[in-house]
Design a protein that fits this description.
UDP-GALP_mutase; isomerase; 5-stranded parallel β-sheet; Rossmann fold
């Protein structure tokens, strides 16, 4: 069976689907796409809730944004986009603030009207707490960027929940910058192009993979068929790189997310799509309310779908979402990368295959570049 295909793509997320579509449509290759899940789309998979009709992103909110015109034009072959602009709010001690931190956040938190220049001066003074000392942990790095008051309010508790670790015990290189806007712009992203797919995310993948040269098989684990593959079959592998090598060099660290979904008998639970919770004594990091991603659809107003997110360290049985990337992880990954370079006919790609976090547009862009080498 497998010899009838030119390429095997392992994983039907954005990286794998893009590679498969380009190889089939542009290179004329016959491509077999497999995914161990029972659906295509990877973590971008979405489905319409049977009770409410509301589209739910099953693996957390996915907001498409990019300034890469090539990626934008490519994806627009398979979908059109709404004019949705993402905005995030955070709850701290019973007050709601705009995120990322902007002039409105600063004025509200400090309880006074400030001009942009006055706000810059205030934050600069507060960020000088270390007095030139090099930051030795995440807390010190954050304080050096935005000062202690804003750090304590909006970063400390949220970060501790995300990483399940005191920020004073996290390395300073986890964050390189914390955006502060000295105006009232509360758009979350600054990219040229932004929106949500009109027909939902899953429809994108259905169209991408709807090609006579592509066969898709879901519910298939690569490691159960590995020994049956021709030894010279080209493989695009987008799964965890440490799993591919049977954890020979050790396990890479990942964070995962537990999702708690509820259907509530109200038309609007929180008035916005994403509400972060900065208080450390609130166990979840944020609540998503999916109806607000697509107000143009006119969902019924008698019920709504919310999802609470809880972050924790991933085990082998969990879905890995975010690379932890400690110095030890980086050293381990480099050893895996050296092993990967010795694998004949195997290309490692995507978030899991390269142990790096990709936004959706970055995964597509990387896949488009990778296809040029085939």
């Amino acid at each position: 069976m497998y010899r009838s295909f030119d390429v095997l793509v392992v994983g039907a997320g954005f990286y794998g689907a893009t590679v498969a579509e380009r190889l089939a449509a542009d290179k004329g290759k016959k491509v077999l796409v497999i995914d161990r899940r029972n659906h295509i789309g990877g973590n971008a998979y979405s489905e319409f809730d049977a009770t409410t009709g509301i589209e739910v992103h099953k693996y957390g909110a996915h907001l498409f944004h990019t300034s890469n015109r090539v990626v934008w034009d490519y994806l627009n072959r398979f979908t059109s986009f709404t004019d949705y602009h993402h905005r995030v709010f955070t709850s701290f001690k019973g007050q709601i603030y705009a995120m990322p931190i902007n002039l409105g956040t600063i004025c509200q938190y400090f309880g006074k009207q400030l001009s942009p220049a006055e706000a810059r001066c205030l934050i600069s003074e507060q960020a000088g707490e270390l007095q030139g000392k090099a930051p030795e942990n995440l807390e010190e790095k954050a304080v050096s960027l935005i000062g202690r008051p804003l750090y304590e309010a909006f970063i400390r508790g949220y970060t501790a929940k995300q990483w399940q670790t005191d920020p004073r015990e996290l390395p300073e290189n986890i964050i390189s910058r914390l955006p502060v806007r000295y105006n009232f712009n509360n758009r979350y992203f600054n990219d040229t192009y932004e929106g949500l797919p009109v027909d939902g995310y899953t429809a994108i993948f259905e169209r991408m993979l709807d090609h006579p040269n592509i066969r898709v098989e879901t519910g298939v684990d690569f490691f159960t068929i590995r020994d049956k593959l021709p030894v010279d079959m080209p493989i695009v592998y987008t799964g965890p790189i440490d799993r591919y090598f049977n954890y020979h060099e050790g396990e890479l660290g990942w964070r995962t997310i537990d999702f708690e979904q509820q259907i509530l008998p109200v038309g609007d639970y929180q008035g916005t799509a994403v509400m972060n919770y900065a208080d450390e004594d609130v166990p979840y990091t944020r609540i998503l309310e999916f109806r607000h991603f697509n107000p143009e659809r006119g969902y019924k107003d008698d019920q709504t779908v919310i999802v609470k997110e809880y972050a924790r360290f991933a085990t082998r049985k969990d879905e890995p979402y975010y690379p932890i990337n400690t110095p030890g992880d980086k050293t381990t990954y480099l050893r895996y990368k050296q092993l990967a370079e010795q694998e004949k006919n195997v290309h490692f790609g995507g978030r899991l295959g390269t142990y790096r976090y990709f936004d959706m547009h970055q995964a597509i862009g990387a896949a488009l570049k990778a296809v040029q080498k085939f």
